[in-house]
Write a structure and sequence with these properties.
alpha/beta, Alpha-D-Glucose-1,6-Bisphosphate, Chain A, domain 4, 7-stranded parallel sheet, 6-stranded antiparallel sheet, 15 helices, 19 strands
Length: 480
């Protein structure tokens, strides 16, 4: 059983376990986020809806599972209150596991020497370890520092800082020592532990073969990206809070996620023991090899999971009882529905938005300055999307193959915004009608002012987008 299958690590662990022949039950708040994964239809895969805060219902779902992986982290969904949320969920999970007769729990935590100097983030990871073990179920803990892999939060921070800033003014943490580990090695430990009884009830430090300072890791990243030397100027006055705002502006991560990560960088994260390398031997990638592998996945559009996939899916907006502005357009396209849908699913990321991309870029920068995600989250894959995934500053909240794609705005906006594409048969045999609808429910006077301020741009943005999708769909159909 896996709690956290929608997350970065969980989403990569499930297919590995299935490939090894283990039946896997995935618990998710939003099961639809998993049903489009390539492994979801494989024999042995089961996806169920779960509320981790409800001990009785969770115990029923855990019943029959010998082993439970706990890979839940609330930092992307609970914001500043993530530590309290994580602790409560871990306590509930531990009690439910004990009630269900689970024989062991496996958990991926954070590396760092125990003591009073731990950052809030690492201290929270320790508290979760304690909570999981509180009911007597044996817990295997793997403690990792920076995990390098395509789409990981650490990798994205590193890549964007190095790509965008030839000169960096940084806090003193650039001189802190770190022992990164490749994501494939993390997954290797998590899988192999199932057949290694000596790991039951034990805590292990896991890391790669290199112990480097963050500044050295930046140099390696710059070399692998083919960039010149990055000039790093450490200054003592930059606090973690200021660092987090800088990370927010330059990288895809939000301030709420960047702050605990930046605070944790002050702690030296180096393995204090290496027992796991003898119990579960595997080829450990160096930092350079891990970065090369990750960049290769990015270049090949083969990013299996990314850090933004575990974001929350809010409920449908309540459009009743208030003013709702609507911009509805439609276009008959000389292409089958499959080609039109494929063109629609290419919006965002490196492909852009088919029209007035400079306006989207400007809106993205304004959103970053206001504390929103901006455009830098991009998308996991340039072609395919799935329920719950991020597309720049939108989230996929509706997905029906060849028929419908709904996006809900996560940008900073004074109201609720929804963008929907719906495809219906056209008047001709090989024609399709594409309906494009933008809905906005303003919040207060500022919401009304916002709508009327952007209305003049809709003709340029939305009409151009519709026309661009039509052109792309016709080209896709012609290549078939």
């Amino acid at each position: 059983m896996i709690a956290g299958a929608t997350g970065y690590i969980g989403g990569r662990l499930v297919p590995r376990l299935l490939a090894e022949g283990y039946p896997v039950r995935c618990l998710a708040r939003s099961p639809r986020k998993l049903r489009h994964r390539v492994w979801a239809a494989l024999p042995g895969a089961e996806i169920v809806e779960a509320d981790l805060a409800s001990i009785p219902s969770l115990a029923k779902l855990l019943a029959g599972s010998e082993v439970a992986y706990y890979l839940v982290h609330s930092m992307t969904s609970a914001g500043r209150g993530y530590a309290d949320s994580d602790l409560k969920l871990a306590e509930s999970f531990a009690r439910a596991a004990a009630d269900a007769g689970v024989k062991r729990i496996l958990y991926l935590g954070g590396l760092g020497a125990d003591g009073a100097g731990l950052s809030e983030h690492l201290a929270s990871r320790r508290a979760v370890e304690t909570a999981l073990a509180s009911t007597g179920v044996p817990v295997t803990v793997f403690r990792a520092a920076m995990i390098i892999g395509s789409g990981s939060a650490s990798f994205e921070i590193l890549r964007y800082l190095v790509e965008r800033l030839p000169v960096m003014v940084t806090p003193r943490w650039v001189s802190t020592r770190c022992q990164p580990i490749a994501v494939r090695n993390v997954i290797g430990y998590l899988v192999a532990a199932l057949e290694t009884p000596a790991t039951i009830g034990q805590t292990f430090d896991i890391g790669g073969p290199d112990i480097l300072r963050y500044r050295q890791i930046m140099d390696i990243m710059a070399e692998e990206l083919g960039l010149g030397r990055r000039w790093v100027i450490p200054v003592p006055i930059l606090s973690p809070r200021l660092s987090s705002y800088w990370i927010h502006l330059v990288t895809p991560l939000s301030h709420d996620i960047a702050k605990p990560l930046a605070e944790g960088l002050r702690n030296e994260v180096v393995c204090q023991e290496d027992r796991i390398t003898r119990l579960i031997p595997q080829t450990l990638l160096t930092v350079r090899e891990a970065i090369q592998a990750a960049l290769s996945k990015v270049a090949g559009h083969d990013v299996e999971t990314n850090w933004a996939m575990a974001g929350p899916i809010p409920g449908d907006p309540d459009w009743a009882g208030g003013t709702v502005f609507r911009d509805a357009r439609q276009l008959v396209i000389e292409a089958p529905a499959a080609a039109v849908f494929r063109a629609v699913c290419r919006v965002g990321g490196g492909h852009g938005w088919y029209a007035a991309d400079w306006l989207w870029v400007l809106r993205g920068w304004l959103d970053r300055l206001a504390g929103g995600p901006g455009l830098r989250r991009g998308r996991r894959d340039p072609e395919s999307v799935g329920y719950g995934e991020a597309l720049d500053f939108w989230r996929v909240t509706g997905f029906e193959q060849d028929r419908q794609l709904s996006l809900r705005a996560e940008m900073k906006v004074p109201g609720e915004a929804l963008l929907e594409f719906r495809i219906e048969p056209g008047p001709g045999p090989r024609q399709s009608t594409l309906h494009q609808v933008a809905l906005f429910q303003p919040r207060g006077l500022f919401g009304l002012l916002y709508w009327y301020a952007v209305v003049p741009l809709h003709h340029l943005v939305f009409r151009g987008m519709l026309a661009g999708i039509g052109r792309e769909a016709r080209q896709i159909a012609a290549r078939r």
